[in-house]
Design brief:
With 132 residues, the chain is an all-alpha fold. The protein contains six helices and no strands.
Length: 132
């Protein structure tokens, strides 16, 4: 397929950067995230805030560089699914209030289901030649 590897790289860059920024924001403001999670009724809010922050930050890095994307892709999709059901569906914004989360859910799943493309750390670690 023409430009497939470049398209996968662009997809990984966009999704990876969004999750890295979101995760970093949570990590640097973890007390607020813990309080918010507690307020919306997430069980074990303190621990879950750390889990979500680390999944977003580290998962975003793995997606960005293209290494073992299946696991972070699925975990990030789960985080987005929980965000949609716990925060977005009950909000006043309706569908428009969850557009970003829905797009990140679907792109994370798509990344998890595809290979990384030849422009990725996975290709380097596997010893494959990017000229192929």
């Amino acid at each position: 397929m023409k430009n497939r590897d470049i398209a996968l790289l662009l997809l990984r860059i966009g999704v990876g950067i969004i999750f890295i920024i979101a995760g970093w924001g949570k990590l640097t403001g973890i007390e607020g995230v813990q309080g918010f999670f507690g307020n919306i009724g997430i069980p074990l809010a303190g621990a879950m805030a750390w889990v979500v922050a680390l999944v977003e930050f580290l998962g975003g890095i793995l997606i960005l560089v293209g290494y073992k994307v299946e696991i972070p892709g699925i975990l990030l999709a789960i985080v987005m699914l929980v965000a949609i059901f716990t925060v977005k569906l009950g909000g006043d914004g309706g569908f428009s209030g969850m557009r970003l989360e829905l797009m990140l859910l679907l792109t994370s799943l798509a990344i998890a289901m595809m290979d990384t493309g030849k422009y990725s750390l996975q290709v380097v670690m596997d010893g494959r030649d990017i000229r192929d």
